[in-house]
Here is the input.
Amino acid sequence: MTIDASGHAAARTAGDGDAGPRDPRVPAATDCVVRDLLERGARAHPERSFARFSSDAPDWSYGVLRAEVLRTANALQRLGVQQDDRVLVWLGTGRLAIRCWLGLNYLGAICVPLNPAYRG
Here is the structure.
């Protein structure tokens, strides 16, 4: 999958556009796929706060979040991460972990978090 400058993916996840009856108990992909939710939120209200961090760090608006996620997804893609890849992520909690998780989801990759506090 390639992401263009506007953040649109050139390829979609498997199953998009499949014909056949849809189970009414299963939400549409546009209602549960992270990439679609992020794009819709950023388009509808780019200035609205998405996340608040400590008092010394600025909030992330949906527009800022989208830009950060696209930057992260593009960097991961340049490193060779592709849809359906499993990527081990060893980060603490916070902004970077959120960016990484959302960037991987944006690509259709799977985040495999490792707890940095684990000492076992």
About this structure: Confidence is low (pLDDT under 50) at residues 10-15. The beta strands are 49-51, 60-61, 86-90, 110-114. DSSP finds three helices and four strands in the chain. The CA atoms of residues 73 and 85 lie 13 Å apart.
